[in-house]
Amino acid sequence: MIGEAAAWLQATALAQTLRASAWLYPLVNLTHLLGIALLFGAIAALDLRLLGLWRGVPLEALARPLVPVAGAGLGLALATGPLLLTVQAVDYAANPLLYAKFAAIGVGLVNIALLHRRAAWRAEAAGPRLRAAGLVSLASWLGAIAAGRLIAYW
């Protein structure tokens, strides 16, 4: 069933257009990388603060500019990732690293949701729960990035 869906996706006009264009696919790929860079750059700084670095910088002061940057990066990555997938959907569907990437993204998103449910997360000191959230976040996003890059070599 996944193979059939992947074959259909890969045969769509959108996938064919992306494959045929000398500039469109690279532009989408660069936009995806920009999204990843914004997302991980902002999240890494926040996670390191949750882990106890830069204790002199209030978490609220750091989060105020970085959360929207991370959100914009996530939006770009989520908007462009499926476009990239269409180009070689059949090959990607057979690659276990794609599913590892999806799982890592899922863990990262659940971690964000749980962290933001705590209304006072920005004002709290780097307690054990926040340190754990920072570790899970760093590991999940690094895992997603690593799996995504390694897909090309599998």
Please provide a brief summary of the model.
The protein has helices at residues 2-11, 13-20, 24-50, 59-87, 89-93, 96-117, 128-150. The chain has 154 residues and is mainly α. The chain crosses the membrane at residues 30-54, 66-85, 97-115, 135-153.
Please explain how this structure is put together.
Helix 2 packs across helix 4, helix 3 (24-50) packs antiparallel against helix 7 and helix 6 packs antiparallel against helix 7 (128-150). Helix content is 81%, strand content 0%. The protein starts with a helix and ends with a helix. The model has no long low-confidence stretch (mean pLDDT 92). With 154 residues, it is mainly α. The longest helix has 29 residues, at 59-87.
Give the helix tally: 7
Strand residues, percent = under 5%
Kindly provide the radius of gyration, computed on alpha-carbon positions and rounded to a whole number of angstroms. 18 Å
Distance between the termini: 22 Å
Question: What is the N-to-C order of secondary-structure elements (H for helix, E for strand)?
Answer: HHHHHHH
Write the layout of secondary structure elements.
Blueprint lengths: L1 H10 L1 H8 L3 H27 L8 H29 L1 H5 L2 H22 L10 H23 L4
Protein name: DUF2214 domain-containing protein
Keywords: Membrane, Transmembrane, Transmembrane helix
Keywords:
0% strand; transmembrane helix; membrane; 81% helix; transmembrane; 7 helices; DUF2214 domain-containing protein
